Amino acid sequence: MPELPEVEVTRLSFAERIRGARVTAVRVGKPLRWPLGSAPEAFVGQRVGEVSRRGKYLWLALERGGLLMHLGMSGSLSFGHATGEPGPHDHFDLVTARGTLRLTDPRRFGAVVWSASADAAPAATLLAGLGLEPFDDRFDGAHLHAALRRRRVAVKTALLGGRIVVGAGNIYACEALFEAGIDPRTPSDRISRARAGRLADAVRSTLARAVELGGSTLRNFRDAHGAAGAFQLEAKVYGRAGKPCVRCGTPIRRVVQGARATFFCPVCQRR
DNA sequence: AAGTGGACCTGCTAGC
DNA sequence: TGCTAGCAGGTCCACT
């Protein structure tokens, strides 16, 4: 999916345009990961408020409650007037006079869930246990070091879990570990305070750079304007198995951790 | 309790 | 050219 940069880029591409628009119709397609939890007609007539993000979730405020949205592995949102007839992978339309917000998600791991507020179930339940936002001042080397010390899993697995810091999925966890010079297989509790500091910086800078570049488009990611991202063009390890490391020329290695592919340079990244 | 592996669903691609 | 196994950006859940 869409990791934090793709979700944030998506949010930025439609939040201002949809704010204040009144819902005129709602269309629901095939089932997504979780049920909507409300009759779709209940949204008709309500105005859309702020669109905010927590981790990889978006919260779209309505006058009564709101919608928690997740893009899963293959989801994207579009917003505009040129939406046309829904295709086989278009599973949710929020129609307003300013345009239609449409969720397209071939694999349907994504979700749209109504909640009375972001602090009430089911939204609060889904958001509970999420780690710090990477751009939160509280997320620093000391925090990351303390959290990593409590785990014995590989540091990459700990990052991906999202319980310490949210937002880095498979691409950006690999890239941040490369930036920090840390072998992704290193046990969490063996990361020194100094290296945790470098890793925290790398997580922030990698995610920030990806937002600047409009995210990564590996297959079907597009922002709500339909624009593709460009970060994948400057990924240094992700998806580059066997290719030379951009820093030292050593072939990039691919291993599997927790059923996910991990890419790293065996020379630049150390335990 | 923490760690591991499977499940969800569909489409694309590399390889035979 | 055509089929198939394997793989894909996430996260929850059951089991050890």
Write the layout of secondary structure elements.
Layout: H1 4-18, E1 23-28, E2 48-54, E3 57-62, E4 66-70, E5 76-80, E6 90-96, E7 99-104, E8 111-115, H2 123-127, H3 141-149, H4 155-161, H5 170-180, H6 193-212, E9 253-257, E10 260-264
Antiparallel strand pairs: 1-6, 2-3, 3-4, 4-8, 5-7, 6-7, 9-10
The chain binds a DNA duplex (16 and 16 nucleotides) through residues 1-3, 6, 33, 56, 70-75, 89, 106-110, 151-153, 157, 160-162, 169-172, 215-216, 218-221, 238, 258-261.
Care to give the gist of this entry?
Helix content is 25%, strand content 21%. By secondary structure, the protein is an alpha+beta fold.
Labels describing this entry:
271 residues; Helicase, Ruva Protein, domain 3; N-terminal domain of MutM-like DNA repair proteins; alpha+beta; 2 domains; 21% strand; DNA-binding
Model description:
The chain is α+β, with helices and mostly antiparallel strands. The chain has 2 domains: 4-127, Alpha-Beta Barrel (N-terminal domain of MutM-like DNA repair proteins); 141-264, Orthogonal Bundle (Helicase, Ruva Protein, domain 3). The protein contains 6 helices and 10 strands; from the N terminus they run H-E-E-E-E-E-E-E-E-H-H-H-H-H-E-E. Strands 1-6-7-5 form a 4-stranded antiparallel β-sheet, covered by helices on one side. It has a 4-stranded antiparallel β-sheet with strand order 2-3-4-8, with helices on one face. A hairpin with a 2-residue loop joins strand 2 and strand 3. Helix 3 (141-149) packs across helix 6 and helix 5 (170-180) crosses helix 6 (193-212). It binds a DNA duplex (16 and 16 nucleotides) through residues 1-3, 6, 33, 56, 70-75, 89, 106-110, 151-153, 157, 160-162, 169-172, 215-216, 218-221, 238, 258-261.
